[in-house]
Each structure stands twice: as C-alpha cells, then as structure tokens.
Design goal:
Its EC number is 2.1.1.176. The protein has helices at about 5-20, 25-30, 40-55, 55-65, 70-80, 110-115, 120-130, 130-140, 155-165, 195, 205-210, 230-235, 255-265, 275-280, 300-305, 310-325, 350-360, and strands at about 145-150, 170, 180-185, 200, 220-225, 245, 270, 280-290, 330-340, 360-370, 380-385. With about 375 residues, the chain is an alpha/beta fold. The chain folds into 3 domains: about 5-115, no CATH class; about 145-205, 2-Layer Sandwich (Alpha-Beta Plaits), CATH 3.30.70.1170; about 205-385, Vaccinia Virus protein VP39 (Rossmann fold). It has a 7-stranded mixed sheet, with helices on both faces. Strands 2-3-1-4 form a 4-stranded antiparallel sheet, with helices on one face. α1 (about 5-20) crosses α3 (about 40-55). It is globular. The protein binds S-adenosylmethionine.
C-alpha cells in the first residue's frame, strides 16, 4: 500500500473508534476485509491509529475536525508535512481536504494540554505539580518496548547478546535491575527462543521497578491479590523462592498464568475468593488494583478519552474496598503493597491516607511514584506494614 492509502485506511478505522468501537477490534475487522494489506501495511496503519488516539485533542485542532480524516490531517501537520500532499484523491489516497477541514496551529505546550481531557487537567496538574506539563508532553509519544530478564534463567548481559544474534538491539535501563529497553527489532521478540523458554517477559520498566521496591525472601507466603495475567507474580517470583498464590475477582483473567509461570520456572497456586482465608495469612499481599491507567496512557490511549469522572469515582471506591478486604489476609508483622499505574493522587497517596485513617494497626513503610519522565510508564506503590 502507498503511504497515502495507509492514511486513508487509518482514517476509516478511526471513524469507527470515534463511534465507540474498541481500537483493537476496529483494526482487526478492517484487516479481515483488506487481504491486500501486508504485515508492514498493517503495522503502519496501527501506528497511525494509536498515534492519533494519543494525540486526539491536538490532532483534531491541527486537522480541523475530530474525525478520522481530521485526525490524520492533524498528524501530518504535527509532523511538519502539508496534508494536501497526501489528501490528493488520486488512487487510494484520501479525497482532498475541504475548506472546513482547515486546521489551526498549536504551540508544543498547547498541543500537550489539548491531549489531556479538559476535566482531567485540574487533577493532573494538582497530582503532578511542576512535572505536569512535561508528563503531558511525554504522554504524546509512543511507549518504549521494555522487557524483564528472568534472572532465574539468564542475566541482562547474556540476554542482550542472545537477542543481538537475532537482530534485536536492547539496552540495560537504570530504572530496574532486570530491565532492558528494546530499540530495534521489537516485533521479533515474541518469536525468539529466549521468549519461548521464559528467559524474559514483556514488562514495562516502571512496573518492574515497583515490584523490585518490595522486599521478598525465600519461603515467604505471597498473595498477588489482583493478579490478572500475573505480571507482578512472575516479577516477584523471579527474585526469591516464594510460595506464590494468585487471585483475581475475574478468575478467567488468570487463565494463562499457570503456563506463563511454568515457562518462567515458577509455580503459582490460583485461589478463588472463597479459598483466600483458608490459605492465609500471607507474609506479603500485593494489590495491583484496577485504576484509571493514566500512567500507561501512552500504551493504552483510548482509556484517556473513555475515562469519566463517574468511572474514576467508581474505581477509587473499588480500590478502597480491595484494601479493606486484602488487609486482614496479611499476617501480623507482614506487608501489604498497594500499586496502581495511575498518576492521580486520588488513586494513590490519598487512597492510602484514607486507609490508614480508618484502619488501626497499620503504618506506611515507604511510597514511590514514577512517571513517564523516569523512563517507563507511570506507577505508584505504597508499602504498608501490619503491627
Ligand atoms: C491492574 S490489573 C492487574 C494486572 C496484573 N497484576 C499484572 O501485572 O499483569 C487489575 C486486576 O484487578 C482485578 N480486580 C478488579 N476488581 C477486583 C477485586 N475487587 N478484587 C480482586 N481483583 C479485582 C481485575 O480483574 C484486574 O485483572
């Protein structure tokens, strides 16, 4: 496909996303009806769609409309290209832009704020303080690809060399001891023997860093209370001989975890809600709670535009309830790690303050907040100790 035809396809897919269809679904159904598109075409179209979702506010202004065409015209203008050169109507190129589709220019700062929904901005600025504008700018860019070396089975140096043999370039990161950032060949990662054999996992370095911040020791009984696919379980289990247990309110989310754990050389016991108390108490309960996902808006940009004030309030209520339910599962002297991939105080420090106020017998041991300025996604972890 010509570059202009890819832009036309992305515009068509974006129109469906703007009507409410999930981006992944819209991309898949488009690809099904477009057998002529090769893997490079599909990857380029996907990049256009996700770039537009990350920068939907600014691209709509630059392109003159919050439509698939407007967003694509805005994307081209943002990159310093004249959209008229692409919107020619020739072959499979999109039709020429109309007068109504003339966009306005934006400064870098204005573009960054246009890409934070208006209702979010006050909380965003209050939570991030002097970093707010820089973080808003960082959220406009694609997320880097980062992996976690499974230090049970390899080292960063050995894995770096192994990946280099497959044409994949990766650099060690400071943010986490097991993190590598992949700068070339990322699309090949999940087809390598190193991946098949569990020598690395796909995991953002911020996510790794908050797991590394939590101390673990051989023999400890550990519960990953909101385990989902098990990213945190696997990261914790790679560091010590733990008795690992995983739970999720939606148990089907853990369906791949036993196989993932086996590949990583670990064993995890899956627990239903009714079995938790019988298997407790635990030395460590890790609560990677459902949240706004604002720290990961580079990776999952649809969430930024779909989040509402009501949903944020619902999430903070669920988080409080998880803290209240998980805390009694911690043994006396044990630890509860509360983690989010949110940038908002309401889901982070304020949530912990409220828990400590209503729950005697607990104190905060430490707290860490990361933003995309640290090199990975935004994350928060508070570690609480039970008397
Ligand atoms: C942030 S995700 C977990 C991601 C996972 N820990 C990982 O690293 O791959 C949050 C998870 O919490 C689960 N969840 C939602 N409400 C819950 C509740 N009340 N109790 C336990 N888990 C819950 C969701 O089903 C979801 O899988």
């Amino acid at each position: 496909m010509q570059p202009a035809a890819r832009i036309a396809a992305a515009a068509e897919i974006l129109d469906r996303v703007l009507e409410g269809e999930a981006a992944e679904k819209a991309l898949t159904s488009w690809a099904r009806g477009a057998r002529f598109a090769g893997s490079k075409d599909r990857a380029a179209i996907r990049d256009h769609v996700f770039d537009a979702l990350r920068c939907m506010g600014s691209f709509a202004v630059l392109g003159g409309a919050r439509t698939g065409r407007g967003l694509m015209a805005g994307m081209l203008r943002d990159a310093g290209q004249d959209p008229a050169e692409v919107f020619t109507g020739e072959g499979h190129a999109p039709a020429p832009l109309t007068e109504a589709e003339t966009g306005q220019s934006l400064s870098d700062d204005e573009a960054a704020w246009a890409d934070i929904p208006d209702w979010v901005r006050p909380d965003f600025e209050a939570s991030l303080g002097l970093d707010a504008l820089a973080v808003a700018k960082a959220l406009r860019a694609r997320a880097p690809v980062q992996i976690r070396v499974n230090r049970r089975l390899s080292t960063r140096g050995a894995l770096q060399a192994e990946l280099a043999d497959e044409g994949i370039t990766a650099q060690p990161m400071e943010l986490a001891r097991a993190a590598l950032e992949v700068t070339e060949g990322a699309r090949k990662l999940q087809r390598t023997a190193a991946y098949e054999d569990g020598r690395f996992e796909m995991q953002d370095a911020g996510s790794q860093a908050i797991c590394e911040a939590v101390p673990v020791a051989d023999g400890q009984r550990v519960l990953d209370y909101c385990a989902g696919g098990g990213g945190k379980s696997l990261a914790l289990g790679a560091r010590a001989e733990l008795r690992l247990h995983a739970h999720d309110a939606a148990p089907q989310r853990m369906k791949d975890l036993p196989a993932r754990a086996r590949r990583a050389g670990l064993r995890v016991t899956l627990l239903d809600s009714d079995d938790l108390a019988a298997h407790g108490p635990f030395d460590l309960v890790f609560c990677d709670v459902p949240c706004s996902g604002s720290g990961a808006w580079r990776r999952a940009p649809e969430g930024k535009w779909r989040l509402t004030r009501d949903r944020l309030e619902e999430l903070t209520a669920i988080q409080a309830q998880i803290l209240d339910t998980a805390a009694p599962l911690v043994a006396p002297g044990g630890r509860l790690a509360y983690a989010t991939c949110s940038l908002f105080d309401a889901e982070n420090a304020a949530q912990i303050r409220a828990f400590l106020e209503r729950t005697p017998g607990w104190r905060q041991d430490s707290e860490r907040r990361l933003t995309p300025l640290d090199g990975g996604d935004g994350f928060y972890v508070s570690q609480l100790l039970r008397d």
